[in-house]
Structures are given as C-alpha cells and as structure tokens.
Write the structure tokens for this entry.
Amino acid sequence: MDLFASMVPLMIELKHVQKSYDGGATLAVADTSLTIERGEFLGLIGASGCGKTTTLKMINRLEEPSSGAILVNGSNVLDQNPEQLRRNIGYVFQGIGLFPHRTVAENVAAVPQLLRWSAKDIRARCEECLEMVGLPFDEYGNRSPMQLSGGQQQRVGVARALAAQPEVVLMDEPFGALDPITRSELQEEFKSIQKNMQLTVVMVTHDMTEALLLADRIAVMREGVVLQIGTPKELLNNPTHDYVRDIVAMPRLRAQRLEELMRDE
Amino acid sequence: MSENLREQLILLPAYFQGHLLLTLAAITMGILISVPMGVWAEQSPRVKRPLLAVVSIIQTFPSLAILALVVALLGGRIGFLPAFIALTLYSMLPIVRNTVTGLESVSGSVIEAAKGIGMSPNQILREVKLPLAMPVIVAGIRTAMVWTVGLATLSTLVGATSFGNYIFTGLQTRNLVAVTVGSLASAGLAVGLDGLVASIQWLLEERNEATDSSRLKKIRMSIYGAIAIVISIALYGLIPQPRADFVIAGKPFTEQYIMAGLLAEELEEAGFSVEQRLGLGSAVVYEAIRNGTVDLYVEYTGTVWANFMGRESNPGREGIKRGVTEFLEEQNVITLGFTGFQNRYALAMRRDRAAELGVTSIEDLVPFAAELSAGSDLEFFGRTEWLRLRDLYKMDFGDKLTFDVSLMYTAVAERQVDVISAYTTDGRVAAYDLLLLDDPRNALLAYDAMFLASKNAAQQPEFLRAIDSFIDSIPDAAMRQANRLVDVDGESISVAIEYLRSEMAKN
C-alpha cells in the first residue's frame, strides 16, 4: 500500500474545494483546485483574509471543505481519522504554539509519542531533529521553551514538525513574528532541510520576498480565489492579473528604493 | 500550666484527628466532584452558567442551615456523615470556578498546536489544558481548604468531632481558654494544610526541572514525609474504634454539659464505656435519640410540648408531663423519669427595680409594661409562650431586645433593660439577685427536666439501674448552684459535677 502510494506523483491535490462559514452566503475559499508534487515547496500568498490559511488548514482537516475533495498521498482526507492524518503531517504554527509546561525535548517528542514510538527511538530522533535546527540536545533538551528566544522557539517548532518524519509539512506564516536577521537565517536553514529531506511543503505567507526565495511555485490568492499559480520566474515575467503583477513587483520596488536612498547619500 | 489549659490539651489529639479527617475527606470529595464538573462546564456553555449559579447559591446558604438540612435529609442522622456532606458542598464553588477559569485561560495557540499535531480532544484536555490550568485549579483548592477548615468547627453542632467542640463548649461555659485553644488550633491547621497543598503543587511543577541538588532532594523528602504523616493521622480515624456502650448527648448550654458529664461518670463507674456528643442543636439531638444514634440525654417537657408536638395550649405542669410522656412513647423514645428540677422561662427583674414599681408578679407588671424594655434570649419572643403571655395578660413591652444569653443577664443587671426572660435554674438569677415574677394566669410552660433514653439502652437492666439513682434527685436549688459555679464563679464543669454528687449524697 505504501509502495503504491509513493508511486502517486501528486502529493497533495485540491479538487474544486469550497469553504463557507455561513452556509454558502459568502465563500472563504471559492472553487479552488491545486496540485502539489512530491518534494515541491508551494507558497500560498495573499493579503489577510484571502483564504490562504483556511486552504492550508483544510489539508490536515483543521478545517473541513464545504464541497470538493482534498487528496493527500492519493486518499481523501475526509476518509481518514483526523488525528491520524495530522500526526503524519508536520505543522509549523504562526504562534509557534510550543507547550509551555513541557521541556524542549518533550515538545519535539510530542508526535512520536502520540504515534507510540519506543522511548529509545524518540530520544534518538529528538537529538537528531534538535541538531538539525541548530539546538544541541545536551544544551537545550531539558530547558523550558519559555527560556528561549523567539527564533530558538520557532526552531523547536520546526524540529517538532519534523520529528515524526512526515512527508508533508504545512507552515502557517512560520517566520512572521521573528526579527529580520533571525528570519532570513531560519528561512535559509529550512530551505536546505526541505531540499535534503525531499519534503513536500505548503507555506502560507504574506511576505512576497519570503515566497520568492523559498518556494518552487507560488499561488497568489485574493478573496478566496487563486488568481495565478506558477514559478517565481513565471509570475515575475507573465503576471496574468494586475494584483499579481503589483504584489510580485513589491520586493523589486523596495530594492530599487533602497538603492536610490544609497545613491542620494 | 494551669489546670484548665491542661484539661483542654488532653482533648487536643482527638479533636485534631476528627477535624483533620473531616476536612481532608470533604476536600478530597470536593475535588473529585468539582474538577470534572468544571471541565464539563468549560466544554459546554449550556452547562456552565446554571452550574456556576447552583454552586454559588449553595455558598450563599448559611452554613448552619446547610448542616441542619443535611441532617434532616439523612433522616436525623448525626456525626461524621452529615458534616462531611455539608462541607463537601461548601468546598465546591472555588474549585469549580477556578477549574473553569484555569481551562479558559489556556492560550488558544497552544490548543490549536495540540490539535494540529494530532492530539485527540481527550489528550488535549489531559496533556495540555489540565496541566496548564493546574496552578489556577490548585489556587481554588487552597481557598476551599481554608474555608473548609474554618467551617468544620460548626460540625460540632451535628455531632461530629472537631475543634468546634472547644469553641462551642468554651463559649457556653465561659471558658475562654477552651475557645482560644480551639481557635488557634483551627487557624494553625488551616495554615498547615494550605502550606501542604502549596508544597504538593511545587512538587508537581518541580518534577519537570532536572535540578537534582541534594538540598532539593531533602526538601522533597520532607514534603513526602509531611504528606504521609497527615494522611496517616486522618486515616487512623477511619479505623473503627471499639464502639462505646452508650452515647450521651447534650445541648449547648451549661446545665446540659454538667448533666451529660454527670451521667457519663455514673455509667463509667458502672463499668460501661461512654461517648459524649455535646453541644448539639435541640432538634438534632431529639432526632438522634429517636433513631438510636444517641442513647441518653436530658430533655425538658416544655420543649417537647411546644417544639416537637407543636402544641399551643398550656394544660399545666402535670398535664404537660402526661401529654409529653404519652407522645414520646409513640415516638420510640423512652422516658426514664424526671430529674427533680425544672428549667423554665420566667420573667425576671432586679429586686430593687421590682420594689420601685411594687411588682411581684406578671399581673402587677401590666400597667407599666408599655414603658418598660424587655430583653430575651434569641428565641423567647418568637415562641408561642410569649404570644400566650401577651394575650392572657393583654400587655406588651414598649421595647423588646434579643441578646446572647450571658449578655441578657448583664443587660438587666446593668439596668439597660427592666425585664428579662430568665431561666429558672440559671445560676446568674441568684448571682445578680434577680426576682422571678409569678405567673398567676399560667401563660408560661413548665419545663421539667427528664431523662430520655433510646429503646436499645432502655432494654439493658444495668443501664437502667445506673440511671435510677438520679431520678427525682436534683432539686432546683442544687441545679441552680451547679450552674452558678460554672457561669458565675468560673469553675470547670467537673467542679459542678462534683458539687451535684455531694448534694445527692446528702439525701
């Protein structure tokens, strides 16, 4: 079964997915279809309230679609036990959401524990994951998350998402709350982890620079609709909507402004 | 150390143990009920408001009323059980409320994360919400603990042993040493248990920190030790004590303490083991003798006539005696006989004030009544006797005040009131040189003191023989003097008992 599943080329597939919170009067997500390939990094970008987070949460059933179907690894998420589904999908939260009453190591161990791994395996995997995000187990494992900086906390958040060796990782504005230097450090590190481990990642962000730098493809959403989906290059060269052109041009415009400022000095 | 203090301290272990068991049992049951209720309320808004309303209402009930209600609901059962149930009810509000508040205050992003990594609702509750709400819940438990220790003193009134035994006995017999010992012990227990809960909370939180210095280890070990000691003392109370042969009870005033002590001494000398349950409410002790929880106490005919039979007429002393004896027979209570003294209500005045007005009976009082002020104990003006007196003599006092009994006597002695509703065997009548007014129209009831026994006790010839020597053996004057020794001269109950024995030996 697993063997067969791994032969499905599409890791995640959204088919005509709609989501409404008021019985259909307004649509938070309207008739959205998306495909994400194995090992692909998709950025979901748009302004607040455009439906990008709702779309993300429907993938692991934190929200359920009002109509349409979502397939993960070839099977409909609605046919799966939501808890089992979520344990097999890594999730990095906007608010980080570490458990303040547990140590760093216990936070990382959360999902393997739910999956009833042996204590020995959990310990080994914790060490591995913390090492991967640059927080040596011996130094950080027994600390409380409250004693860590924001950047370190989100490193733990990433380690927790990766602990059970998921194929898919969902990220909800994971680096939004961090200072710019910490943010770009973490972005780069995560990108290399993703590449090495061939992770399929869907990342929600409102930061176009982040999306351009990390994602293989970017889906631009507005008012519940995906306006355009394509590689960064495609979006930059052939925007099909004015909104897409404006939002994609933003980082470049900023860079130009900065350059002009430098010249004026 | 004074003799009095020594006498009090001898009682300390038993009272401490009773108080501790009652408090811990009630708190444990309170936690077992209230935490799940709080969890339920937090998950379902439809439950939350009515539940919090109900536990708040329980809290607003006067604690004495709750105790009395529980006794009534249990069919007159006294002792540990009603006190335990009432205290459990009382402990619920802070625990339920803090459980709800604690769970509600867990950050939404943490709960979302728990859900997002695949925890089931149950796992979220057990592994995330409850641990994070724990400090708030424990704060509620600590509040409940302190309240419960305080309220447990009231359980004396329904026959459960606690530090309240010191306080109620002390207040009624003017033994301030007993009151002080009881209050300090109760306060000390509250502080100690509060500290213990705080230590347990510290232990639970410390568990996560891998700090293992030897000092911490020592602290931890001493907390474990303290917990073990407290629990074993409380549990010791659960070991069934060899049941006493007879239980003697009494109401909360001096005469009753003296009579109960006297009866207990006599039965012990006859070779029985005796347990005393003192300071019980009037209705409580009557119920207890009916259902056999209590074997022997001294009751008054007028009380049975007016309170338990609900009669409003006054057929005279002999009529009441007959009526009451017949009634008690139907009620499964055995009347062993009369004590010889009667402790009834009588209107009393300072002798000089009475002479001033030329008054020797209630009849003489009628023309002056509207200008006089009268003082009574807490119930006299509410009794049918007073209504009958008012109607028969067609008079009412200009001013009517109610007092605690000892303050009532002080008030008349210091001329703050003109007339009081005195008790005829009260030692203070003689001490303050009060004149008891005649009652020519027979408005006031007779209160002959009698020995009431449970059916079970009355079937034992040796028991009957022991009590027999007391029947019709204590005249009014002797009882009044015994009461006076305690209430006026500040002697202990045992001195008064000794006095009565010597009086009886003379006859």
In short: The first strand of chain B starts at residue 246 and ends at 249. Chain B touches chain A through 19 residues (CB under 8 Å). Strands of chain B lie at 246-249, 274-277, 296-300, 333-342, 345-350, 373-376, 399-402, 419-423, 434-436, 448-454.
